[in-house]
Amino acid sequence: MRQGIADAVIAAGLTDSENMPSIVLETPKDKSHGDFSTNVAMQLTRIAKKAPRVIAETVIANLDTAALSIEKVEIAGPGFINFTLDNAYLTEVVSQVLTEKAAYGNSTFGKKERVLIEFVSANPTGDLHLGHGRGAAIGDSLANIMSKVGFDVSREYYINDAGNQINNLVLSAEARYHEVLNIDWEFPEDGYRGKDILTLGQQLADKYGDSLVGEAKTAERQATFRQEGLAYELAKLKTDLKDFRVNFDTWFSEQTLYDNNQVLPTLDVMKQSGRIFEEDGATWFRSTEFGDDKDRVLIKTDGSYTYLFPDIAYHKNKFDRGFDTLIDVWGADHHGYIARMNGAIQALGYNADQFEVQIIQLVRLMKGDEIVKMSKRTGKSVTMRDLVEMVGLDAARFYFAMRSSDTHLDFDLELATSQSSENPVFYVQYAHARICRMLASAVEKGIAGGYEGYDASLLTNESELAVLKMLGDYQSVLEEAAKKRAPQRITRYLHDLASTFHRFYNNSHVIDSADIAQSKARLALCDAVRITLNNALSLIGVSAPEKM
User: Fold this and answer.
1) Which one of 116, 310, 344, 444 is least enclosed by Cβ atoms within 10 Å?
2) How far apart are CA 91 and CA 472, in angstroms?
3) Structural contact between residues 368 and 355, judged by C-beta atoms closer than 8 angstroms
4) Bridge partners, 357 (sequence order)
5) Residue 367, H or E segment
6) pLDDT per position as a tens digit, 193-226
7) How far is CA 260 from CA 113, 255, 263, 315, 463, in A?
8) pTM for the full predicted model
């Protein structure tokens, strides 16, 4: 459909392929508005220098409606083009899904644009909390979705291993090490008091004994504890994320920016923009020109760097590696950081739209009307690992991806563990398991080969056509989710597909020994739904069980 619209635009002489905007197809909420709608006429207004409705009329005049199985085309509002399709095209959907299987939904929409998604990036000084878990689920799901529709996506974790937090980690480990050895040692004021640091201190004492005790050993001891502490904390983070079905292509060390002399030279590039100035012995970035509330110091009067400066160098490094678009997934407390970093990107010579931020709002655990703040197991704040133990991995991944990242999330523990149609992840997974059971039952009931030799043209009643249309929408949903950076559109689609399937199942006698031809057609339709559910669930890191 998109290619057909693009061909009509070019045939009408409105623009060429190089300047063609991304053609977005949406499914209207009101069914009377057709099966699909596009705003391409509005997108072309500036290029074609014509009114949107005039553009829409020209596009329609050049559409090959027969080839695109279009029954009716209408212009609505300021220039939306609404398409109603000939239902005959739907019979091809089943064959397409059954043939393509895991590849169903693949497209070239992203045009191999190189995208780097940096997410989680928690300091390696403790456990991952619920906000990190939500960021992990959204970042990973977004990467999966964008890869599916033709973007060249890489996942990256930025290791903050060069700042004060690492010094505090070293001092904390040092205190616990001496404590295990029964040596008096003052615990640092800003130290980390988590259980993991107690374990680290014990491991260091077991490995090194008292060989690192004494003032003369301070430099060696701290260097050793820095290396050991980072390795210990990172190993824990990597294990938790892998168990959460999140794997990164790159673990990027902040320290390497200093080791490879990439921080200070970044300043020379920014100076070319004219937004760097000296004042009161410090070096400043004029970030107010980009919407920041005040200008920002990059290099302090004592020559040390602020947090912002190496972070700008890190983003320059990303572009230096050849990425076209950078997407950062940040916590809610970083909202004020967006304007200054966006300004820095432009000061480096890149376009503002090459840098995007997805803000992860807070997660609140609920049990009925009660807010859950502490883990029963540890008595401490609930971690990502705790949540998975409470509700299961599938529920955690599904619920975290279920709402737009910039909205607060109330995570209902009771609902997430209930086996009812009110629980969205159970509802979707049950549809998949129900189909698996049905396909096995068909063979047991003597329908040889399951649906082999099916005739999709027999799928004509309202509930069958509704399922077919949902299947046909899958690729456009994926592309829209990628374009809008909205994984929640996949969870919504999954629920809608499961709901449409359950209605079909309740209204239809799928396996009917008196009508084998109809049974085969319906079984083929069911298997197409199973495949699509499996594909979509995998994009958000959720399993598709065969039994429940």
Assistant:
1) 444
2) 10
3) no
4) 328
5) strand 363-367
6) 888 899 999 999 999 999 999 999 999 999 999 9
7) 27, 9, 8, 15, 62
8) 0.89
